[in-house]
Amino acid sequence: MATKNKKYVYSFxxxxxxMKEILGGKGANLAEMKSLGINVPPGFTITTEACRLxxxxxxxxxxxxxxxxxxxxxxxxxxxxxKLGDANDPLLVSVRSGAASSMPGMMDTILNLGLNDKxxxxxxxxxxxxxxxxxxxxxxxxxxxxxxxxxxxxDFEHILETVKDTKGAKYDTDLTAEDLKEIVTKYKAKxxxxxxVEFPQDPKNQMYMSVNAVFNSWNNFRAIKYREINxxxxxxxxxxxxxxxxxxxxxxxxxTGVCFTRNQSTGEAKFYGxxxxxxxxxxxxxxxxxxxxxSALQKQFPKIYKELVDTCNxxxxxxxxxxxxxxxxxxxxxYILQARNGKRTAAAAVRIAVEMVKEKVLTVEKALLRIxxxxxxxxxxxxxxxxxxxxxxxxxQGLPASPGxxxxxxxxxxxxxxxxxxxxxxVILVRTETSPEDIQGMFSSKGILTAxxxxxxxxxxxxRGMGKCCVAGCSDIIIDxxxxxxxxxxxxxxxxxxxxxxxxxxxxxxxxGKINTQDPVLSGNFGTLMSWADKFxxxxxxxxxxTPHDAKVARGFGAEGIGLCRTEHMFFEGERIKAIREMILxxxxxxxxxALSKLYPYQKGDFAGLFREMxxxxxxxxxxxxxxxxxxxxxxxxxxxxxxxxxxxxKTLNSxxxxxxxxxxxxxxxxxxxAITYPExxxxxxxxxxxxxxxxxxxxxxxxxxxxxxxxxxxxVATSKExxxxxxxxxxxxxxxxxxxxxxxxxxxxxxxxxxxxxxVADKIVEAGAEFFSFGTNDLTQMGIGLSRDDAGKFLKExxxxxxxxxxxxxxxxxxxxxxxxxxxxxxxxxxxKDLKVGICGEHGGEPKTVEFCHREGFTYxxxxxxxxxxxxxxxxxxxxxxxxxxx
Amino acid sequence: MATKNKKYVYSFxxxxxxMKEILGGKGANLAEMKSLGINVPPGFTITTEACRLxxxxxxxxxxxxxxxxxxxxxxxxxxxxxKLGDANDPLLVSVRSGAASSMPGMMDTILNLGLNDKxxxxxxxxxxxxxxxxxxxxxxxxxxxxxxxxxxxxDFEHILETVKDTKGAKYDTDLTAEDLKEIVTKYKAKxxxxxxVEFPQDPKNQMYMSVNAVFNSWNNFRAIKYREINxxxxxxxxxxxxxxxxxxxxxxxxxTGVCFTRNQSTGEAKFYGxxxxxxxxxxxxxxxxxxxxxSALQKQFPKIYKELVDTCNxxxxxxxxxxxxxxxxxxxxxYILQARNGKRTAAAAVRIAVEMVKEKVLTVEKALLRIxxxxxxxxxxxxxxxxxxxxxxxxxQGLPASPGxxxxxxxxxxxxxxxxxxxxxxVILVRTETSPEDIQGMFSSKGILTAxxxxxxxxxxxxRGMGKCCVAGCSDIIIDxxxxxxxxxxxxxxxxxxxxxxxxxxxxxxxxGKINTQDPVLSGNFGTLMSWADKFxxxxxxxxxxTPHDAKVARGFGAEGIGLCRTEHMFFEGERIKAIREMILxxxxxxxxxALSKLYPYQKGDFAGLFREMxxxxxxxxxxxxxxxxxxxxxxxxxxxxxxxxxxxxKTLNSxxxxxxxxxxxxxxxxxxxAITYPExxxxxxxxxxxxxxxxxxxxxxxxxxxxxxxxxxxxVATSKExxxxxxxxxxxxxxxxxxxxxxxxxxxxxxxxxxxxxxVADKIVEAGAEFFSFGTNDLTQMGIGLSRDDAGKFLKExxxxxxxxxxxxxxxxxxxxxxxxxxxxxxxxxxxKDLKVGICGEHGGEPKTVEFCHREGFTYxxxxxxxxxxxxxxxxxxxxxxxxxxx
Lengths: 888, 888
Fold this sequence. Notes:
Oligomer: homodimer
Strand order of the largest sheet of chain A: 14-24-23-16-17-18-19-15
């Protein structure tokens, strides 16, 4: 129901930039520019609320909306001194959509409204340019026909091409006024024959039919999909902008162009752009004539150029951001058709933000907010050369699991990846899904492509840790490992081993063949931005790293310690996996201890390496978390091999594997549960940790390192008693070793909070002696929401689309639900120990929204994969800045 | 460390019945009887704290404990006018263990201490009974040798038998004093040769060695196991009772016996028992002479008999409970050696409690507390005849999954079970594990035996619902379904199809052959007790029932509605499973709807049946909860069959099955998640519910029923949005149908709270319109603690043994952790809607401790399987009584 008193239509003079919700982005911007005194062709905006009303009324423009539109139109006519569609001197208008969020190209636009059989003649006479008038009429019909009357675009193209052929015209511009008149006649006939009605001659009718069409386009398929893909929610509809037309194609003192106040790619503070004289916007895009650099305008029309530069600077200064503007010159007069914050590369974003601070346009706080932390990914990873990329064929779409660009030959096993790489070949490892046994091959490959698994699958997590490009869950591809071929059914494409593909881990796209790549370069501006971020942020940023290499990379990115070292990954190489398998198959404690003693030197070495890289910083080591079945093979072939190797018959092996099988491994016998059953496993690990710490401190096996700070973390704790039992054992070992070594080691023992119950009894766990909590938000999400991350992919998309979850809870922390468990745990934990150290080490730790949550909830630190460390640093700073803004 | 001022030894005169913690049960009771003026042989008790000290001191009796013991012994000697082991008139004592909780037979006892080579002669002279003296010495040596000196019992038996053979003695009693003397000599030699030391002649040394042995027996293997099995925790050790010996074998005016103040089997208030003159306790047990009924004593020694009856009555009146007593008559003088609350059958427990109220011995409140609710199971199910049972061979041990006794021929498939039953044969269905497709066969069988699965496995849950005997997870048995044989490896037993076995669902024992059974009889006393319970309890008791039959049974047991009707069980019969499979395989919405429309009439019929049985009461119907893969076959054979039936090729079927496979089905695509993807499923169910309610109310298809109260329950809700979406659809359907029917139906829509997140956002879910919560504590436990009930069996036992959990959290609700989620949910839910209806429908709903928890936390009702309804009613009343006791 419309409200009489409600304002549904605003003239540009009545709006401003803060009214995006009801005027849409475009309408609000046009109004804002108007208020800056910039020469914008006059017009008005029908609000998004009118659009909502349109749908509420069953797709009809409400009469109150019409009444107010008519009033505004009359005003516009008065202002322009012309009447819409007047036979002698017609006012022409454009009708454009414009929602509160930018949805470029998704909704409809109709230009030149107001032309009909009579006014076209008047326009020709008035402008003395019959070709222009008839071309405009032709364009209107074509746009109106396809957009409003829903005809095929090709219906019109076909007529145009036929006439061009007949006349021997190569380009549209070769057509004369007479030719265009002939085309108009043919268009009209086509419309009549197709739709059974005439092209509407009444200009107001044209206008309202166009408004209708724009409203309808809000819910067309591609607009809905666009909103879904871009997670645009909560909008009520599109606004409609009705604006007087200005023409860049009225002769040699007319023209049109686009310009940017700074360079989009590099961020350089240099005005640039392109323009064409005697042309319309479409012509610039069509590429028939080569546009001139905007600097040429300075020579051609110095006054107009100066006005353009001044205007652009004024707008940039007003918005305090780089502007992307469209302008038209109509018979020597400059009009600004659009201004918006320009899109830019990450490098440009950083440079612009930093330079604007130097120019005193922005404060450091504002500059920090100007950069989307996720965009930094671009700076830290290889990217495709855009030109080379745009020429390549996208053959499949997966999940953007780990950013970067990778090119290489397809291989299907980790072994092949490793072998081929040794002879200098770049490879892409393609697997249905990866398992811990593939680690070495993954490390060798340039990129990883999997057919199954989500953003937190094994492949995705490991690849992010390595900073390696990965596209996961690419269900388009079918892998035949035996035949060594990869098929993309929908495209009928088959790629054999050795064939080349390219992966974009930032978009999830898979390309055929090789694409040129560009290496990441970290500028001084990046360093400046990061140092600002560090000044503001209050929360620590650590990294998840399992190897000295990862630790070193992360420290280079500013990591302030290790928040999570996963020890299970260390068990898969060479002799180690043999030893752990020996332990699993052992029949008694003595045999298990013997097998574990073989692992001890490896583990000690692993930890020593990490302690060296992280001297002076805390290193949190999670004791074994994985269930034992992960260490046994699954394939018949591998089982047979193992049987020979271990001299254990296949039947016994199979029965052990069956014994260890779990219906819900996620809720199974792992982490501290395993250690309750087999405490000797943690005993060995604790001994390796403390011995490594002692040796590194003493300088055994390397130079002396000061400030070794191990933090021993017990996973999957659900009860305080589990913690007590395992902590007591650990402390016993640690204290004995420390006493023997006569060295002081600053160690802590704490726990993961990843089982909901642990959060609920957090006070009890601190009472039992936990010195820190680290939230394992992957598992806490799985158990808290009851979602298996390996399975939920099937329906989670639908859940996000229906706004049941605002985001995939495995990507962005579910602050309402899982976050509540975290709040409870912190509150209870700190009720016992005020200065309890609290961190996060799930995949969410490097996600900006989650980082902000962690800041707000008083975390001591976040921990994330090495390549996300800068992202977390920036996000942490932004959280502080936003908080300050709220408070002030 | 011992404390000087601490009292470690109490004379019987110093203790009382409330000192069990430190005096043990036996010691406290002896002291209490002493204080009642009952003739108990004098003595004293060394406390459990002394036992703790013994272990703290590295298995040494502390000197302070010794000092106090010596003092008490001196007192005892003074009181008795004899000295321990005196050569002329020796004081003899017994040393007996006695912990705070009764652990019958688990720890050690030594009698006749104080006898040695000299005092045995003194005793013979003093009593004028050389045979008695030497026999006592012989017994001491035998007990002391095996218990204290850790020799084999058979070492002594062998000597005894050899002498008996030589002398031509049939019974021990045929041996003369001389024979016994010879045996003593041989015993001494054996001790010396085996242990290298002499049998100790120093009486005090004998006594302290015995105390040592009793303390040691606290941690012997069988005692530890006993505590583990009986979940006895938190005790610090055993007390030791040292008591002057009295002898029932001193001649014809001596004797010994046991008696009960009421009948242990029936509860009848009639004094009964057995005794033997000129005998010791062992002789009664040995069964050499047939004991006389205690009524015979009345004729033989009317004065003693009267004294015994009076004493017993006095003790019963004092303890206000039926007593099980041991007495000895020494030369005409009556001594009471032990009195304790007698063990009794459930029937006896109920009768005694009710009659004691009538006798004004007990208040109704106390009577209600007197019965262990779980014991009522005995009354409600068939039991084995104890005599027949004790003769049968236990061939395997499983979990007591559903109480009762069952006898029948072994069958291996549900089909066979169904077929054989039709021809009147009783069968036991034996399966590796059952699946929903076995339901009909399970219903036909007398009992169910499974090799896998725990207390909450499919077989267990369904069997309890049906009140059918079930032994689950019996890992001793190996089933070969093809060969139709059942093997018990460890016993080398093979049973073929058609062979008889007997199951005890209350103990988990499997017996070979047929055992006679007794039918349950519910007495008037039972009714009285239940009516008292109902008067006290404040919480409602509903039932979990999926069929009209179950509903009727439950209502008979006092159920006040249905708290959980699981609709998935309804989909497995005949045509239904076809329809649901058709739906799963359907490629589009229309086809799915068509398949669902076939299910609609069945569902409507199911619900109508329940509404009729439960007229006037609420019926909570849970919409489909199971994941779709549960409805598809798993075995190759079944898939091929389905392929033919559905005319869908095997490959397509397999690919669908693979599609639906989940790594963690527990956290998968089920419940409301399925309905978000396929809302048409719930649409059909809601329509069936409301149409059934309307038809039953109108009297269509049966007579008119007033008060149909459907409660529609949406499962697996994790977010308020899921609830909103599905509730809106449901209300839309319901309101339309109600409007059309012109009938008022009192319906509610609510949700299960079984995902931890739901508990955390309970306020939001109520804001979204939930009218009731029902806690699905099975899943809430699984997700909240991160335990898969299908897998956790492997390590949970160890968890309970190590006291990480006080009980298996799938049997007894984890009140600290999962309970906290429940408290949060109720608090948040009722912060929005004060009178929010709150129930529990997990397996815990009929578990007494959980019922008490629910009462305390303000639940509206608990819901449990039909046969647990009386248990829940009693437990709910007990909760109130206990609460009152605390408050007053």
